[in-house]
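Sat 14:20. Reprocessing the chain from the morning session after the first attempt stalled halfway. Input below, unchanged.
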Amino acid sequence: MEKRNIIGVDIGGTKCAVTYGLSSGPSEIEIVDKESFATTSCAETIDNIKAAVHRVLDRNGLKEVYSIGISCGGPLDSATGVVMSPPNLPGWDNVPIVRILSEEFGVKAAIHNDANACALAEWTFGAGRGTRNMAFLTFGTGLGAGLILDGHLYTGTNDNAGELGHIRLAEFGPVGYGKAGSFEGFCSGSGIRQLAQSAVRERLQMGMKVSWCPDGDVEAITAKKVADAMYAGDSLAREVYEKSAGYLGIGLSLLIDIINPEMIVIGSIYARNEAFFAPLMQKVIDREALPLAGKVCRVVPAALGESIGDYAALSVGANI
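Finished this time. Tokens:
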């Protein structure tokens, strides 16, 4: 296969990155160069993206590239290439970013929301290579998902497929995605923080002390602080993560029953704590999911690690 030069643009709430990748096959890509810079106002950030792409092209002696792939938080319309007022990108109101970059550089461009782009990345270059039915879950600050069905990215009628974080798993519970007891409420960094805060408040109100919250400042609790305490042997911290793992199993059982995937790839918090999550989660899946569907589905950590944002944007370009 002819090698293709691809530019990836990862637009985040605090920083952006422009990556140059060299694709030598449908599932192989080498990251050659990268520039990162702060996200500022909409107009300034777009100008900085254009300038960074020009610098990357000049630095690598490229007169043209095959495509430009863009990864950005939603909501957005991937069909028209328009970013539609994402909460983490104030001022990005109906911005036709695909048309802007396509016209600037004279090549085809495409965009997907970050969860879908990460799904493409893990399917094209990571843990999901070779699968036909795969789901990717972010499990970071929030919980989002991207779906690969029958060998294609499935985005739904208006790009809202895979919003698993909004599913309510319990009548009461931590708030995530604007809903108490949601999948995101139990299985995200912000959700784990809420679970821990509630558990610590219970202890403090009973006159008990918590070693990893010595001054009683529950607002300072983070998911990482709870994980560190758990690995240090703290039973309360372990209870918090056990609850998250149990609800992860419930949520994945629903996903397994509905789409019958052969693989579920999970990033961030799960990937960093797989040894703890996996057995507790799998016990629930074995109990709750349809046996025939559960038997053929493997749950694995994301393979692309901290570079997944770069590969996500490049994978959008590679799959145009």
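The chain has a mean pLDDT of 94.
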